[in-house]
Amino acid sequence: MTRAGLCGINDPARDWFSTVYGVSRSGVQDEAMDTNMATVLLLEDEPLIAMDLEYGLREVGFDVAIVATCSEAIDWLEVCRPDVVIVDIL
Q1: In angstroms, rounded to a whole number, what is the distance separating the alpha carbons of residues 66 and 64?
Q2: Looking at domain 3-87, which of 1.10.443, 2.60.40, 1.10.357, 3.40.50 is its CATH number?
Q3: Is the alpha carbon torsion for 49, 73, 21, 3 positive or negative?
Q4: Which residues are within 8 A (CB) of 31 and not within 5 positions of it... i.e. 6 or more apart?
Q5: In 3-state terms, what secondary structure has residue 3?
Q6: What is the pLDDT along the chain (90 residues), one digit of tens a residue?
């Protein structure tokens, strides 16, 4: 799910995988977040690792937003408050 789905705002970095790496993320739904789901902000610059973590977290019931850089994370955090932040040591 994109930040737009999580926060109800437009997301300029909507799909950083395809924008930055040209990797398709088909199958990820863009529906409104279920308010019962905890939100995880995942800061990961490796697309395959991010996709694996996103898949695992969604499988156990978390809603996941992914950013690739610290500046994207800061921008995201200015608008939204996730329940958990997972940070790759950059």
Answers
A1: 6
A2: 3.40.50
A3: positive
A4: 1, 5
A5: helix
A6: 444 455 544 444 444 444 444 444 444 444 444 456 899 999 999 999 999 999 999 999 999 999 999 999 999 999 999 999 999 875
Helix (H, G, I), strand (E, B) or coil at 52: helix
28 class by beta-carbon count within 10 Å (0-12 exposed, 13-18 middle, 19+ buried): middle
Rounded to two decimals, the pTM is 0.62
The C-alpha atoms of residue 61 and residue 58 are separated, in whole angstroms, by: 5
CA atoms of 62 and 73, how far apart (whole Å):
18
Rounded Cα distance, 50 and 19, in Å: 15
Name the β-bridge partners of 67. Answer: 43
Residues 14, 4: Cα–Cα separation, whole Å: 8
